[in-house]
Structures are given as C-alpha cells and as structure tokens.
C-alpha cells in the first residue's frame, strides 16, 4: 500500500472502537427515527376552525327576537371571524410544515454523519 492510504481494519476490534461504534450506531438510529417522525408530521395539516352561530328561540305569540351587531346580522361577524381564523391557521400550518421538513432533513443529515463517523472509527492509516 501507498503511504497515506487508508484501509479498513476490522481485526483491530478494541473495546474503545466497539464502544464508539455502538454510540455512533445508536445516534444514527435516533437521528433517523426523529427525521422520520418529523417528515411524517410535515405531511399533516391543521384542521379548520368551525364557529357555530348561536341560535336563539323564544316561543311566544307574535314575538320576534333578533340579534345584530351595529345593525349587521350576527351571522356576518361570525363568518368573518371564522374566515380570519382559518386564514391564520392556514399560514401557521404552512409555516409549521416547512419547519418540520427542514428539521427532518437536518436529522437525516445528522444520521448520515453518524454513520460516516462509525466508518471512520474503523479506518486506520496504513503503516509505512
């Protein structure tokens, strides 16, 4: 072999190498599991908000009861409120999904780096 070349030496299984291998393998498993969970969460969306309009019924002959807000029927403010909340939830949901995707990719990269470190533990520079 050339000087400076690197070779794999599985016959040099020292307790330190075995311990480091177990640690790196465990870390890789943790990172890949977290990445998978975050990627799964990134596919979920927030549910929409459904505001139910209150109904008032009063029984009585010739009696009519109607609620309004500044001359506007009560249904309109409820509808506008529901639309605003759902718009906010949609924006929040998109933001959360993007954050989960970025976090998942970070965990996958960390898992790959852990596996690379596992390989490095078993590499030994060749003797001259």
Q: Give the helices and strands as they follow along the chain.
A: EHEEHE
Terminal CA distance reads: 8 Å
Number of domains: 1
Count of distinct strands: 4
Overall pLDDT level: 81
Q: How many strands, what sense, and barrel or not for the largest sheet?
A: 2 strands, antiparallel
Question: Would you mind describing this structure in some detail?
Answer:
By secondary structure, the chain is mostly helical. The protein has one domain (6-125). 59% of the residues lie in helices and 8% in strands. The protein contains two helices and four strands; from the N terminus they run βαββαβ. It has helices spanning 15-42, 75-121, and strands at residues 6-8, 68-69, 72-73, 123-125. The chain has a two-stranded antiparallel sheet. Strands 2-3 form a two-stranded antiparallel ribbon. Strand 2 and strand 3 form a beta hairpin. Helix 1 (15-42) runs antiparallel to helix 2 (75-121). The longest helix is centred in the C-terminal third of the chain and has 47 residues, at 75-121. The chain is rod-shaped.
Sum up the structure in keywords.
128 residues; mainly alpha; two-stranded antiparallel ribbon; 2 helices; 59% helix
Brief synopsis:
The protein is mainly α and about 130 residues long. It is about 60% helix and about 10% strand.
């Amino acid at each position: 072999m050339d000087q400076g070349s690197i070779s794999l030496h599985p016959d040099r299984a020292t307790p330190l190498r075995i311990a480091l291998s177990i640690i790196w393998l465990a870390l890789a498993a943790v990172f890949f599991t977290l990445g998978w969970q975050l990627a799964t969460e990134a596919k979920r969306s927030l549910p929409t908000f459904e505001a139910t309009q209150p109904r008032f019924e009063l029984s009585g002959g010739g009696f009519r009861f109607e609620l309004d807000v500044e001359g506007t029927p009560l249904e309109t403010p409820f509808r506008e409120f529901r639309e605003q909340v759902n718009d906010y939830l949609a924006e929040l949901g998109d933001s959360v999904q993007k954050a989960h995707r970025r976090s998942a990719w970070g965990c996958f990269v960390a898992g790959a780096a852990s596996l690379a470190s596992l390989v490095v533990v078993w590499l030994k520079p060749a003797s001259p």
